[in-house]
């Protein structure tokens, strides 16, 4: 089973130039990206928590969600 791409991600809340907030996401062997924008730091933290939960749920699934779909045989 492949590991979820975000399983080893590091998250950091950053303040944007307009006073709002973003979440910097660093994934090993990838360039960091910023998810924006959130009105409050608390909203950014909540996004991080939801994303971590989603990754955890998808990583714990016995089904490989990242497997290429196989064509179905004709009925």
Give structural attributes.
75 residues; 3-stranded antiparallel β-sheet; 3 strands; 25% helix; elongated
Your description of this structure?
By secondary structure, the protein is of the alpha+beta class. It has a domain at 10-59. Helices cover 25% and strands 24% of the residues. The chain has one helix spanning 41-59; strands at 10-15, 21-26, 33-38. Strand 1 and strand 2 form a beta hairpin.
Instruction: Give start-end ranges of low-pLDDT stretches.
Output: none
Number of helical segments with 4 or more residues: 1
Q: What's the pLDDT, averaged over the residues?
A: 83
The spatial strand order of the largest sheet comes to 1-2-3
Which overall shape is indicated by the principal axes computed on the Cα atoms? Answer: elongated
Helix content class? 25-40%
User: Major β-sheet, in short?
Assistant: 3 strands, antiparallel
> How far apart lie the N and C ends?
29 Å
| Total strands | 3
What's the order of the H and E elements? EEEH
Whole-angstrom Rg: 16 Å
Query: Which structural class fits the helix and strand makeup?
Result: alpha+beta
| Residue share in β-strands | 15-25%
């Amino acid at each position: 089973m492949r590991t979820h791409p975000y399983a080893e991600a590091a998250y950091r809340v950053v303040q944007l130039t307009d006073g709002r907030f973003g979440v910097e996401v660093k994934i090993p062997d990838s360039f960091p990206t910023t998810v924006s924008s959130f009105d409050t730091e608390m909203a950014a933290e909540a996004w991080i928590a939801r994303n971590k939960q989603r990754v955890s749920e998808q990583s714990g699934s016995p089904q490989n969600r990242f497997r290429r779909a196989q064509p179905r045989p004709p009925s």
